[in-house]
Structures are given as C-alpha cells and as structure tokens.
Fold this sequence. Notes:
The complex is a heterodimer of chains A (211) and B (490). Chain A contains 9 helices and 5 strands. Chain A is α/β, with parallel strands linked by helices and 211 residues long.
Amino acid sequence: MSKILEQISENVLEGQTKKVVELVEQAINEGCPVKDIINEGLIAGMNEVGELFKEGEVFVPEVLISAKAMNAGMELLKPLIQDGDVKKIGRIVMATVKGDLHDIGKKLVGMMMEGAGYEIIDLGVDIPPEKIVEAIKEYNPDLLGMSAMLTTTMVSMKDTIETLKESGLYEKVKVMVGGAPVTPNYAEEIGAHYSGDATAAVELANNLMGI
Amino acid sequence: MRKRQNPFPGGLEGGLYKPLTQEGIMKIHKASMKVFEETGIQVNDERALKEFHNAGADVDFNKKIVRASESWVLDKIKTAPSKVTLYGREDKYNMELDGYKVYIGTGGTALNVLDIDTGMRRPSTLKDVQMAARLVDALDNIHYFVLSCYPNELDKKNVDVNRFYAGIRNTSKHVMGGVYTSEGIRNIVKYASLIAGSKEALLKKPFISFITCIMSPLVMDKDYTDLMITAIESGLPLATPTAPMAGSTSPATLAGTLVQMNVEALSGVLLSQIIDPGHPVLYSCVPTTTDLRTGAFCFGSIEMGMMNAACAQLSRFYNLPNYTTAGVNESKIPDIQSGYESMATTMLCALAGSNYIHDAAGLIESGLAISYEQYVVDNDILGMCMRAVKGIEINDDTLAVDVINEVGPAGNYLSNDHTVMNMKKEFFYNTVSDRNTRSRWEADGSLDGRERARRIAKQILANHKPLGVDKAIEDEILKEIPGMVQEWID
Lengths: 211, 490
C-alpha cells in the first residue's frame, strides 16, 4: 500500500500527469483510503517539490508541471472526498486592476499558489473595483490578490480597497498586492500586504492564513 | 535526483568572431617573416644558439642573433602537433586543444592576494596557491588551473616543487605553471611520475605542463631559455608565452604588435621542434598594451582582447594550438572595473575560438594580485562566454512552431513541456548575479557582488574536498623530494 503512495509522490515530483492519474486510479481500486492518497501521495510529492524549489534544484516550470500532475490526481479523488479528508488551505480571487493588461506575473503567482494547494479564481485583466467587489461577494474568498504593472494603474489598487471598505467587505478578506511599481510602503499605505515575487506571494498567503 | 549537467562545458567550438581577414593574416605572416630574415631574434643562451645553428638557421654567434628564411621557419614548425591534449587527473577534465575549441582557465603568477577574511592586500603564500586551486576545482566554468601566485615565504629553490604540489593536491583539473629552476622542473616530473604511476604514464596523459617565457622585443633570455630547454627535455607540454606591450615593447599599432609577437611566439615553437620534433607546444601569446598617458602596463584593455582573439586565427594559419590571454584587469579590488574589463577580453577570445585562454580568472591589479572573490565572479563571466560560444541552435524543436501554436495568443509558456525540456540546456544561470526583486535583495542583506562572491568562495573553501593525492604516494613525495613543505591544508 505504501509503495503505491510513494510512486504517486515520485511521479508528482517528476511532473508525470498520466502516470499520476493511473496510479491514483489503481490506489482507489485497491481500496487505499482517500485521505492517504492525498496526504501521503499527492501532497507529499508537492511538498518535496517545494523544498527542492527553495534549494534552487527545481525551476518554476517544473513546479507548475508538478502542480498540474497533482491536480489531475485530485480531480479523480474529488467525488470521493469526505469532510476531514483534506484540509482546505484557502481560496483567492485574483485580478489585474483596471486599466492594466499585464498578466504574466499574476498568472505565475496564481500557478504557484495553486501548486501550494490554494483554490484560484482568476478574474482576468483590466478589472474595475466594482467587478472585484462583486466577485468577493460571490466567491467569499479568504484572500484577494491584485496586480499592476504600471505606476499609472497602480492607483486602481487603492480605489478597489476604498470600494471594498465602502461595501463593508474589507474586513472579510485579506488583500495582497504585487507588481513592478508596487512597494512595501505603498501596500501598507493603502491597507494591503506586499510580496516581491511569486514565491514570496505563497509565503505571504500562508502567513496571512496562519499556516 | 536531477543531476544538473553543465550545458556549456569547455571544448565548445568558437570561431565566429574573426578580427582578421584572410588577407590580413597573410600580411601579418609575410611581415613577420621579413622580421625573421632581416632583424632576427636575440638568443642569449649558448646551447639554444647552437641548436638553431645546427638546424640550419643563420646564426651570428658574436651578436647572438638568429635569422631565418620563411621557408626554413615553415619547414621547422611542421613537426609541431596541430592538436595538443592537456589531461586532468579525472577524464572529465581532459582538454583537446584543437581547431577552434575553447577552454578557459586561470593564470599567474601574482605576488599578492586580497585576504578573504580581511579584504586587505598582503603578500601571497603557499596556502593561497592551495586555496586558489581548491576553489578552482569546485568552480564549473574554470576548465584548468594555472598556478596562481608566488609563495613569498619560501626560498626560491623550493618554490617550484611546492607550488606545483599545492596545485595538484587541490585540484584534479590540469595544472600548468611557470617554473624558476631546472632542478625544480626535474623534481616536479619525478613526483608527477609517481602520481601517474610511471614517467611513461605521465607523458601519455600529462596532467601538468610548464610555462617558460620569451622577452619582448625579440629576446630569448638566458635563464628562461635554459629553463625552456629543461622543460622541453621533460617531454611535458609547454607554453612559451611572449608579452609585448604595444607602444613600449612593441609598435604602437595592433598590427605591428601582432607581427612582432608572431615572430616571438614562433621562436618558442621553433626551439621546441628543433630539440624535440613533435614536442607538444602551444603557440603562446600575451599581447598587451601600454597606457601612453602614463606608461602604465595594460592587462585589461580592449585592444588586448582584440589582439589575443586574432591569435586564434594566426595560430591556426600555422596549424598550431594556441595559448592566449584574457580576463585580467587593472582594478585593485573586485569591482565594476574588474567586471567589465574581464568580460570584454575573455568574450572576444572565446568567440574567436582560442584554445586555451589563460589568466581569465582570479587575477586583478594587472596580474599583481589574486582575489578569491574574483575567481567566483570570473566563473560566472566564463560561463556567460561559453554560453555565447555555443550560439543559437536552430532546428525544428528550437524553432518551436508547434509550441507557439499550442500556446496561442495570450497564453503563456511557463508550464509548457517544451519549456521544461529546454530550460536547463538553453540558458546560463549565473551564481553571483542577483536577479531577485529589490525587496528580496534587501531582505537578504542588500549585499553587493563582491560580498556575494566572497560568501560563495568561503562556503566552497569550507566544504569542498578535492581528489587529493594517495596517502602512501604523498608520504613518499614529502620524504624523497628535497625542499618539500611538510604541512598542507586539510
């Protein structure tokens, strides 16, 4: 039993989606507890990826591919999951703010957070404050992540937070911001939390979630 | 698990940068031959003069001048091998100096060192030779070790044996070095034979080689030539560098300096082939410049890079492997100047396809001092140069039309298989360069390049264990070879 979990973990590490799907199916058929497949197989593999990433052994694209493999395994298990099988880490709504069309940085943060176990709701680019407020109401996320590439569009972050405060939603969600012109000071000024890159964003999210 | 291989190792083919046209090469050659015929070279060593005479050169014994015709020169250098292999004590470090293959390494002999702990300049010691060798052993993009500095605390007669042993003991990469006494050369060969298993084994796979110099303008000095002959007799590979300084010891034009340097470089090749036809010898060049504002010697000028790059073309015109010089700088500390000067000359020589670019790591202050930080910085510079040498690969996979189609407009390539397949072989990843965000850089202590390099150097020196020398053989060497220091770093 533990051998197959080890194989799942290894194939997550190697980013072998097909293999992970096969092995997870096999484990389910063999009657392996769902909780073990998740924790000792999929998550264990992803944790090792995280460690190797920190050491510089594994690169960003490999983290993303491992995350894909893990999620493919998760899809199979979803219908079988019962309460308590898996600890939900958190849900984040993400957007590139109004007037700004840059999204590779935000996508990277999203993918890294997905790899770390977060549920991602990506609203896209050029998203005005009202739309973000609507999404917060609809999805009730733990976190809101906003991105801007230009000094001229960065101010939309402040506008969005003001709108959140007016709608009484600001206290319900923790706000993360990032992007080239954003500084820790600016983030603090507008009432948000700053991280400098995708890895730091995951660390920040974990801190905010108390993980 | 995922052992990362160096995708840009020594031995990649350069040659895309050609500072000389075919016509230019021919003109330099013809001009050099005229100097050989009319001016000649001064040879201050009796035995060498006789060797030149017996081989058919025109020797004036009174004035100690050797003159020769173009046909004689071309005939005599014919026996020199077009390819010389310099071996490491591990096969992965073997270097085949052939065609336009590029290898880059360190140089010497500095008299000072910037202390790794205090950062202050002090006279170098035998321990510094050991530490530099050990550092180079661990740095991937430095392909061989030329003995770095002078052990100021030792008597001159004991320098050769201890300096070479300091190198060999701390790196299994090829060790080349300058020598000071004939007795030293003979004793080095003696213990190197012990390490190799026998003299034959050493000559078959020479993991050490010697440097003996020629003086500009146009002089084969008495002492150096005597050493050169002893080195030739050892059978080991030899470099006979000449270091004209354009504007002071050679003409104040690059072309004129190349003409004179060509005569000098060929003289070393000639002597080796007359004494020992087929001897593994390198066409050895150190063309430099003079800063005529002050008369200062320039080891890091851009013209130096251009001339050394041209040497790759000149040596191949004569079908010889070359030893060139780049990557040194005039800076007193590892800083902006040491970075751009080192990069400029090394890049030119690497792109030109120089076989053995020496002096390209660790040296600062026009070669008068070594810096541990600079070795680490140069390791990055050398890696960048080798990356450029490899060039842009064009094939169906690299053109990636299918991948572009798959990702489509507004997609991204970050988690594409094609990215993963290529990311470790297509890009060079610097170790000293900080590519983090400002906030992460600040969180890490806002360190500048020198300090980052210093920390890497310290970490390597604390942890890296080189191949070393077998204990029993070491005991024998320390006991039998006169003048050997008995205490070596752990």
